[in-house]
Amino acid sequence: MNEKANFDMGKTLVADPDWWRGAVIYQIYPRSFQDSNGDGIGDLPGITQRLPYVASLGVDAIWISPFFTSPMKDFGYDVSDYCDVDPMFGTLSDFDDLVATAHRLGLRVMIDLVLSHTSDQHPWFAQSRASRDNPKADWFVWADPKEDGTPPNNWLSIFGGSAWQWDARREQYYLHNFLVSQPDLNFHSPDVQDALLDVVRFWLDRGVDGFRLDTINFYVHDKELRSNPALPVDQRDDSIAPRVNPYNHQLHVYSKNRPENLDFLKRFRAVLDKYDSATAVGEVGDAQKGLEIMGAYTAGDERVHMCYSFEFLSTHKPDAARFAQVMGDVDEHVSDGWACWAFSNHDVIRHTTRWGLDDSAQRALCTLLLSLRGSVCLYQGEELGLSEADVAYEDLQDPYGIEFWPEFKGRDGCRTPMVWEASNSHAGFSEGAPWLPVSAEHLHHAAALQEDDASALLHHYRAALALRRAHPALIKGAHDKVTADGNVLHFTRSYEAQTIYCAFNLSDAPATHAMPGGTWRSIADTVGGAAPDPNGTLTLGPWQVALAIKT
Question: pLDDT band for position 241 (50/70/90)?
Fold first, then answer.
């Protein structure tokens, strides 16, 4: 572990403790963004090189997936040193350069903290497993077997099989909600919480502006180790784990989602509140009660600032009725909190493929995403319209996909390298062979090609982001009831004296829609929006949008 740095980052961003509310955050998967040294793996200097491109999109912040020291069994989500950079990604000095460059460009920096578990190579686990009576003996979740030698309960791992692994050193089982090599930390231990909060301080002292909290609802387990109840077949949902995974057969009321988690989140928030403008977004991984958990975790100002769940990261293509239902549920469960929305990320099939979207649909849904109440996460390459890459079995790296192939091909298809140019098979990502192959189909969507084409999707994303930035109601505003009128989704955003009416035709067929009374002026010409006629009627083409400001 390295010592804290004592230096002035030269931060030029204006302190704003409320910057996160309505912010747009661009997720960078570092292995696949830009390689600077030709080893085929993206790195921190590569990210720094490409930050001007990210800033040009008009986003507020970046979220960098894990770059900490790790054996990379789960590509950085298995941490062996929370306070250092894995050599494949660079050094702490490289990270400092990245933060300084981002801040000069007006970008805030959020990093991915994996607090629920470590790698089995972490020194904490090495000491914990050595005996039952050492100072870190209770830092992980250990349990005796049942009388017949089987695990203490029925908890399952998201990556398949039992969530318990036998350890001959202690003659006990340890808990792992993910890979066997990712033992779960014991949040019932105050020492564990203290050590993790020291990690939070380390990175805040280094200049980061906030955190994405991996698996935020997995931190605390049931102290009594009670078995989870079965989940009825008609309630099973594959939004968190693939259909073929028996993880979907349980209601995970004891292995995660414990009420004691709120106590830790209050301690975490108290640390953040000592730093100017520090924020956090939590990942809520639950198929049954995601929005209820989001509401509980973000309520008031003593927990995390915002959370995202998987309503729009699932395989079910949302229509107007689905959007209205989800936003209505948010009004019910998250009225005192704040949501963060995403359609794609590093864990799910890219939404272009997942929902079978053509170019028009991608544009409409981009504009919708940036008009909903809440903050937004965009995933690298989404602005280029990248589809899910077809990765051959022999090229797979993801242990999740290898385990459930071919019914579930894992997460490699959304993690292939970013395509910067179409001049070579490596797409400007690396001078060496990439860790995952570049999709030949992706080359046609390269950023350089789209920069030169004014009609390209990339420019639509920029226009939609600029539209959002220009109107406070779209950033921080309240909304009235989100309503589906056939295939047209509509709602009003309002903030102080500004009121904006939003309507979206989410279908391949034309539609008409009556605007509410009053005088309205279209503000959506830069995103291909329709304007109301003198009678206040909108005529919307397939996948056309309308945004109008009240005058």
Answer: confident
